[in-house]
TrEMBL record:
It is found in: Endomembrane system. Keywords: Membrane, Sugar transport, Transmembrane, Transmembrane helix, Transport. It comes from Akanthomyces muscarius (Entomopathogenic fungus). The keyword Zinc does not apply. This is UDP-N-acetylglucosamine transporter. The chain crosses the membrane at residues 35-56, 68-86, 107-125, 131-152, 159-176, 196-216. One of its GO terms (molecular function) is UDP-N-acetylglucosamine transmembrane transporter activity. Its main location: membrane.
Length: 228
């Protein structure tokens, strides 16, 4: 009898432990599941959107290399239409736009620079610049931003300078390698590639100027000038 009681007690204890473990696993899954799903969905949308965007861009450029200006027009048209819908106010004719929270003149220079940068970047495809090289060259804007920041008075650590130097070396090697492949073709292709590099370089300089203006404006906002 005593052995039977011990067996029943052990059996009940094991059943309670199994039930408790199942409840713990269920609660953990209920807590971690939504967060994990949100993280995977976010990563899928980011990488899926970026990869599909680059694939579509390369397909368009390979089909018609001179369609960069059309891409810029479509991009800005889409942003303008969606922005107008979100800012629509039927009580404010004739443009039916909601009142701005900041004056337009405050961001006019940034708007012009942003438009010019996008036009130049997309127009560079017309000069025998491939999409991979285009992406690599645009990622090398850190050097121009650092130079502009240094001229503005900003100082950087040795680690930041070394990182930018290594990045710039990689960008130069990628451009040099692609230029060497272009040199095996006709001279006109090599000349067009050089023109495309100059256009991208000008766009990088304008990007650095825009970044400095944005930094200067944010600093002026955080430290406003007091008037007596």
């Amino acid at each position: 009898m005593r052995e039977a009681r011990h067996a029943n007690a052990a059996k009940n204890h094991n059943e309670k432990r199994a039930i408790k473990n199942d409840e713990t696993k269920t609660s953990i899954a209920a807590e971690v599941g939504p967060s994990a799903f949100a993280a995977f969905a976010m990563l899928g949308l980011v990488f899926g959107g970026c990869c599909s965007n680059v694939y579509a861009l390369e397909s368009i450029i390979n089909f018609e290399s001179g369609s960069g200006t059309l891409l810029t027009f479509v991009q800005f048209s889409f942003v303008a239409v969606t922005g107008y819908v979100s800012q629509f106010d039927y009580k404010r004719p004739p443009l039916f736009l909601a009142p701005t929270k900041v004056p337009l003149s405050r961001w006019a220079v940034n708007i012009v620079l942003f438009f010019a940068i996008n036009v130049l970047n997309n127009h560079a495809f017309s000069y025998d610049i491939s999409v991979p090289v285009h992406i690599i060259l645009r990622s090398g804007g850190s050097i121009t931003t650092m130079i502009a920041g240094y001229l503005y008075g900003k100082r950087y650590s040795k680690m930041q300078i070394m990182s930018v130097v290594l990045l710039s070396i990689g960008v130069i090697q990628a451009a040099w390698s692609d230029a060497a492949n272009k040199s095996t073709s006709n001279t006109s292709s090599k000349t067009a590639f050089s023109t495309g590099l100059i256009i991208l370089f000008v766009a990088q300089i304008l990007s650095a100027i825009m970044a400095m203006l944005r930094t200067f404006r944010s600093l002026s906002n955080s430290h406003p000038v007091r008037t007596s």
